[in-house]
Amino acid sequence: TFHGHEEAGARMVKGLFRRLKLPMERLAYVEKLVRLHLRPVALTNEAVTDSAVRRLLFDAGDEIDDLMTLCRADITSRNAARVAKILRGYEYVAERLAEVEAADRIRAWRPPIDGAEIMQIAGIEPGREVGRLKHLIEDAVLDGLIPNDADAARAYLRTLL
Asked: Lowest mean pLDDT: which of 9-18, 103-112, 147-156?
């Protein structure tokens, strides 16, 4: 329950897997769920932005449904009214996830342009600058600044140059 416990917990997973002799191929999955398990809680506020929902969908990827199941199972209160309130909040988050997913197709999201196209448009060689520009384009899509299509990404890239 302490600040940052999601990161501390994620770092502990590998040692727990070894000690319990769990299959290591599931390690990344469990670390991801532990690391993200508080994010849906933060989205239960009705004033949450589409950008925040998009980021959760992007970060969780195909594991979003499992993450939501984990969050529901993680409710520890014995106060029935509090549990009901938290569950209503999660239902709201699930609705918002579905709305943004339907509008943006984030789970199947791929960057609208790749590094090769960035190098061609920017006239640069492979290197860190390509990654930096790609990251800026991804952020612009996830933040809702540009639509998730190649033409918009190319136009945005040109503004960055």
From this structure: 103-112
State residue 109 phi and psi, 5-degree precision.
-65, 135
Using CB atoms within 10 A of its CB, is residue 120 exposed (0-12), middle (13-18) or buried (19+)?
exposed
In the structure encoding, which two tokens stand for residue 23, read together?
Answer: 């299959």
The answer on pLDDT for 115 being more than 80 is: yes
Helix (H, G, I), strand (E, B) or coil at 138: helix
- Per DSSP, the three-state class of 25 is helix
pLDDT for position 105 = 67
For CA atoms 144, 149, 152, 158, give the dihedral sign: positive
d(CA 83, CA 23): 33
Q: Is 34:13 a contact under the CB 8 Å cutoff?
A: yes
In tens, the pLDDT along 72-110 reads 999 989 999 999 999 999 999 999 999 988 877 665 667
**Locus of tokens 């520890």:** 76
